[in-house]
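Re: beginner question about structure tokens

> Can someone show what the tokenized structure looks like for a real chain? I only ever see the sequence side.

Sure, here's an example I had lying around. Input first:
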Amino acid sequence: MDSARCWVVLILLSGLTWDCVVSGRAVKTRGFLSNAADEPPGSTLRADALKRWRRAGAETHRERCAELAAPWQENAEPAPQHNATLLELRVRAFSRGPPRDPVFPGKSLFGFVRRVYRCCREGRRCRRVKGIQGHRRGDADVEFLLTREALSLTLTRAELHLHLSNPLHLDVHPVLSALSKRDLPTRYTGGSKGDAAELSVDLLLLLRGLQDGGGGGADIRQLFASPPRDAGGAARGPVLELGLVLGCSRAGSGVPCGEGGVRLSHPPFMALYYR
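And the corresponding structure tokens:
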């Protein structure tokens, strides 16, 4: 058994289960190796090309593992008023009530889980993480439901993951308007990669406020909407409503994100790291 361990959990509101399969590395065995003299012409070139391909893949994988622990960048600029894209984010505590549509994990969330697991299994940094899939309601409205278990976690890091199309290779900078209005920076990592952009936005301060029931000081309490009430008039819990503004630029000059083709390519998800 490997000494490194990895804890990866998906919260699936529909009760969906999933399996994680680890493929072993092939081992050469005596009697199954061909002699160099028997190899057809050109096999050496193919072998060299395969080695280069494997080295490039290993280097890319190391970079992807390093991204999991990348330090935050800070964007202290105010939310742009023009040429920006606004995403409405709603985070609420899951509670009993009318049935909701099931939320299944998306391709990007599964890919993130696989990367965390592989990096940990290879002896890199291992951490406990839960993935929370967001549910899109329209083109610019995303809702996240957190279970009681998720709200009880001792969080060490909380990320909102965005996968965006970016055909013009623009620089994309996120701003959480709720923080910007209070002169607090938006912390994020990632950036443009070819025709796409991947961003991770820090939500730790805000989710800790949600765990406190909308507490955490006057500035934090103002970020929470009035909690919805059930048929009997009882409040269901705090709701965190956020506006995430995406500003786009090229060589320091502002460019309209919409005209540049910057939009969500996959539903966002959250990654909650905990002790």
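Each token stands for a local structural state, so reading them left to right follows the chain. The helical segments are 43-67, 107-121, 148-151, 177-180, 204-211, 218-221.
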